[in-house]
Write a structure and sequence with these properties.
Elements: H1 2-10, H2 16-68, H3 84-95, H4 111-125, E1 135-137, E2 141-147, E3 169-177, E4 183-190, H5 194-198, E5 212-214, E6 217-225, E7 230-231, E8 234-235, E9 252-261, E10 272-281
Antiparallel strand pairs: 1-2, 1-8, 2-3, 3-4, 4-5, 6-7, 6-9, 9-10
Helix pairs in contact: 3-4
Length: 302
């Protein structure tokens, strides 16, 4: 009995070998668990980055579409010297006694003065103003002229603007910022007078940092569909085939940009890049009626 109790008292603990073996097994299990959790977390983070990239892409495409698609179309006809519209304008000026362009009305006692004034007004009537151009751009930047609901609150509470009438014209420009880390820059100017619209075609980049709307855009380019092929430059203010009416916006505008998202899940692979190519049809572009909104464009698309 005594020897049996001694043996049981001697076997109550674990040997050093058993402790080492149990510790090794625990370390292996914890390591496997850590690897599994780390893989799961990396996959979750990678999924978040892909979703974030898709959300940014969708937002950029939607913003571009909202601005590029409603580009203004040029007027269907313009008064030119010798045309019926210019003759009518001259006759009205003569009947009213004649006016000098940009000044108050004159007595009209001298018919030659009235005729000269009418001719001057006719010449001014044939001037092509950029806000009728719709689109002016090249491969790296674009300027579109659109209409928006006038902001009637701009003049509220400002005595100096009591008699000012807000305009519905807007000039919207896009370009790739060169300051800081770059990004997609957007500038929208609201016109109060036609002179501002006539004398402005390029964005003001003096405060470029405040114009950046998406820092993730690292590359940007534009192309324009003229009805038969893609070109890298467009100026809708240039006269069309008739030599009078401005060309207006292109049939379609292609925007290609690159989105970069920092890859925190696998930083050794560098940023997550995605190239996006989007084509926007411009319904207001002049051209012949067709069953297809973009005749000839389908064959050029991939």
């Amino acid at each position: 009995m005594q020897s049996s109790s001694r043996r049981s008292a001697h076997r109550q603990g674990y040997t050093l070998l058993e402790m080492l073996l149990a510790s090794a097994i625990a370390v292996l299990l914890l390591g496997a668990l850590y690897v599994a959790i780390d893989v799961q977390l990396r996959q979750m983070q990678a999924s978040r980055e892909i979703v974030e990239q898709a959300n940014i892409t969708r937002a950029v495409v939607q913003r571009l579409g909202n601005d590029l698609i409603p580009a203004l179309t040029p007027a269907s006809s313009r008064a030119t010297p010798g045309s019926s519209a210019a003759s009518t304008l001259t006759a009205i000026i003569n009947a009213l006694g004649g006016t000098t362009s940009g000044t108050s009305s004159t007595t009209g006692s001298d018919p030659s003065t009235a005729s000269a004034s009418g001719a001057e007004m006719g010449n001014n009537a044939s001037t092509v103003v950029p806000f009728s151009a719709g689109v002016i751009g090249d491969a790296l930047s674009i300027t579109v002229f659109v209409t928006r609901v006038p902001d009637l609150t701009r003049t509220a509470g400002d005595p100096s603007q009591e008699n000012a009438t807000p305009s519905d014209l807007r000039r919207i420009s896009y370009w790739l910022a060169s300051s800081g880390n770059g990004g997609l820059a957007r500038q929208e100017l609201q016109w109060l007078t036609s002179n501002e619209a006539q004398n402005s075609t390029q964005p003001d980049t003096s405060n470029e940092a405040s114009a950046i709307i998406c820092e993730e855009v690292k590359e940007l380019s534009f192309r324009y569909f003229d009805g038969s092929g893609w070109v890298d430059f467009w100026d809708g203010s240039l006269p069309g085939p008739d030599g009078v009416t401005p060309t207006g916006p292109p049939r379609a505008i292609e925007v290609t940009f690159v989105i970069e998202i920092p890859r925190s899940s696998e930083p050794e692979l560098g940023p997550l890049r995605k190239t996006v190519r989007q084509v926007f049809a411009v319904p207001g572009a002049p051209g012949l009626a067709s069953s297809s909104p973009l005749p000839g464009l389908e064959a050029l698309l991939p």
